[in-house]
Amino acid sequence: xxxxxxxxxxxxxxxxxxxxxxxxxxxxxxxxxxxxxxxxxxxxxxxxxxxxxxxxxxxxxxxxxxxxxxxxxxxxxxxxxxxxxxxxxxxxxxxxxxxxxxxxxxxxxxxxxxxxxxxxxxxxxxxxxxxxxxxxxxxxxxxxxxxxxxxxxxxxxxxxxxxxx
Length: 165
Description:
- The protein is α+β, with helices and mostly antiparallel strands.
- Helix content is 50%, strand content 16%.
- The protein has 5 helices and 5 strands; from the N terminus they run ββαβααααββ.
- α3 (71-93) runs antiparallel to α4 (96-125).
- The longest helix has 30 residues, at 96-125.
């Protein structure tokens, strides 16, 4: 959100805009009327503030851990910090069962996030990792045989097969 305020001798005109270009246009119109002063401010909504606070702690590219070059090390440190906060919360609440539930939830959540990010990074940097390799065969094709109605049928060794043989 953008707030433009024009201060005149006997009044003040203020308006809030969601689009920066509309705010700039309004500022120019107010300037054309010779105010004493015009201010142009970017205001953050509560949602933006919460989002920025969350990212400043949880985003490994924005928090101070971004100086550590190894992603695995950053993830491990984030896990240790998560466990520390689980223990702190359990001490405050006074329940070790709360610690167990919180610790498991943090392990699952952060682990799932790390696996997802690692998968996306692998897909972006090495998409060939997800394609079939030469000589790949599905589990049934690895035996090179199929049994249909009690008879053994030899399969083509060059056909990698599929999900449904």
